[in-house]
Amino acid sequence: MKRIQGVDIRLARREPYRLPDEMNEQTLIDLPPETIANAIVTDGTQANAGEAERPQGTDTAITVYLPRSWPWRSLRGARLTIDGTDYWVHGDPHPVRTNLTPTGYWPVGVQASTRKA
Fold it and tell me: Tens digit of pLDDT for each residue in 3-52?
């Protein structure tokens, strides 16, 4: 029996800087990219989702399932690089809290596209 094998992807996240700027707004800073091993990358068109499920649009390019070994942090405004192509994360996905498989192993489903959200 073969096991599901993931791929390595690069994740570049953004976080608010500690102090607000002169307009009292948080400034986002780019964090150094990190490599995430064993991520599952699928075609985003496999789901029958409409505009209500995807407020940024209905043309999601990919869905990536991040492994449980990756310590979850906010993905709002994050960029994924897969095989040299940049994808921007839609929304701020959170881990699925269930013991069902495959989500028991890949609990964070991330929708992303080449169009900056």
Answer: 777 899 999 998 877 676 677 777 778 899 999 999 999 887 655 555 55
Contact 75, 5 (CB under 8 A): no
The pTM of the full predicted model, rounded to 2 decimals, is: 0.73
Q: Which domains, and CATH codes, for the chain?
A: 7-113 (2.40.10)
Cis status of the peptide bond prior to 102, with omega within 30 of 0: yes
Please name every residue paired with 64 in a beta bridge, in sequence order, or none if there are none: 41, 110
Token pair, residue 98, equals 């269930």
User: How many Cβ atoms are within 10 Å of 10's Cβ, its own excluded?
Assistant: 14
